[in-house]
Amino acid sequence: MIDQVRPADLAAWFAQNADATPVLLDVREPWELQTASVAPQGFTLVAIPMNEIPGRLAELNGGQPELRIACLCHHGARSQRVAAFLNQNGFDQLANVAGGIDAWSSHDPSVPRY
Questions:
Q1: Which of 4, 68, 75, 111 could form a disulfide with 98 if both were Cys (CB 3.0 to 4.6 A apart)?
Q2: Measured between alpha carbons, how far is 101 from 32 in angstroms, rounded to an integer?
Q3: Would you please indicate which residues are annotated as catalytic (active-site) residues?
């Protein structure tokens, strides 16, 4: 199952497993990252465009199958697809950031909206 987590609730979702530093996987394109991004606070930020995920799976778990990964995109659709793909490939502690970076910008005014 893939949890749907609002940006305001992400820290609490990450805290459910304090054994490993969680990952926020941003699957947006490089130009989108330049437009709006988030600062890592209590998590590792990994940016891999959606179309590169299949070839870069090994970068995500680093030998830690218990790793919590939250996927982020612009509005939540691409990240949901990536989370489903990860789930099919053995990852089981997954969340989709509901509403994406757009919702994050509503929660955090330092993140520009586009």
A1: 4
A2: 10
A3: 73
